[in-house]
Amino acid sequence: MTLADLLPGDAGIIQTVNTEHLLRQRLLDLGLLPGTRIQARFKGRNGDPVAYLVRGTILALRLSTAKNVTVHPLGRSFSCPKGT
């Protein structure tokens, strides 16, 4: 399962970041490290980008980027605001 597969309110644990060079380094610098909990929070009007909560910060990623991050799903989290 990839980060792009998470629906708003779904959480997961990052397993791998499957990109190379600058994009990989940027994602790692933003805190997308293996073993880190991440939660999908909001989607843009057209479903792209998606906002994710990671390490207390909201990050917006394009789906094309999120597809490169594999996660272990944890299911729904009750900390997601209603209506998302």
Observed structural traits:
single chain; 84 residues; alpha+beta; SH3 type barrels; five-stranded antiparallel β-sheet; 39% strand
Secondary-structure blueprint:
Blueprint: E1 10-17, H1 21-29, E2 37-43, E3 50-54, E4 57-61, H2 63-66, E5 69-76
Antiparallel strand pairs: 1-2, 1-5, 2-3, 3-4
Structure in words:
The protein has about 80 residues and is of the alpha+beta class. It has one domain: Roll (SH3 type barrels), CATH 2.30.30.90. The chain is about 15% helix and about 40% strand. It has a 5-stranded antiparallel sheet with strand order 4-3-2-1-5. A hairpin with a 2-residue loop joins strand 3 (about 50-55) and strand 4 (about 55-60). The chain is globular. The two termini are about 20 Å apart. Mean pLDDT is about 90; it is low at about 80-84.
What is this entry, summarized?
This protein is an alpha+beta fold. The protein has a single domain (3-76), classed as SH3 type barrels (Roll). It contains 2 helices and 5 strands.
